[in-house]
Amino acid sequence: MKGKNMKSIHIKKLSPEIQSSDTDYKVDVEDLSNRWEKMTPDDKQDILNYLDVKQSFAWSHLSEDEKKAIYYISFGKWGPRNHPPMTVPEMVFKALVSLFLFTAFGFAMINYRKDKKKVKELEGESKKVEKLDASSPDEVSDK
């Protein structure tokens, strides 16, 4: 990260397992919600990595700005959560498409009922024809 947005953060030795000495790591997370969209992908990734490491320690070691930055990155309106509101033409288009689809579905259901009735009628007529053929086979052969 570059110059003026840098802030020195001291990560203290927290346990005997950490053998390294005190470390300075410079990342500015102050007012991140207003700067996030304008930042370069590399800067964003640096902040994500930094906060990921910081979260592995106790929350008491995080500053208020770091906690706000973590909250914003996790739940803020950026990326997939940043949906602009629908415009009037988009709403009209969505309404017309929905109306068309529901109308088509309604006509399909009406035609399905009519087709079911017609199938029953045709099955009844074919049974009548079969009964007539079965009852008088001689009359058909005479003609």
UniProtKB/TrEMBL annotation:
Pathway: Energy metabolism; oxidative phosphorylation. Residues 124-143 are annotated as: Disordered. Belongs to the cytochrome c oxidase IV family. This is DEBR0S6_07052g1_1. GO terms for molecular function: oxidoreductase activity. It is a single-pass membrane protein. GO terms for cellular component: mitochondrial inner membrane; respiratory chain complex IV. The keyword Metal-binding does not apply. Pfam families: COX4 (PF02936). The chain crosses the membrane at residues 91-110. It comes from the Eukaryota. GO terms for biological process: mitochondrial electron transport, cytochrome c to oxygen. Residues 124-133 have a biased composition (Basic and acidic residues).
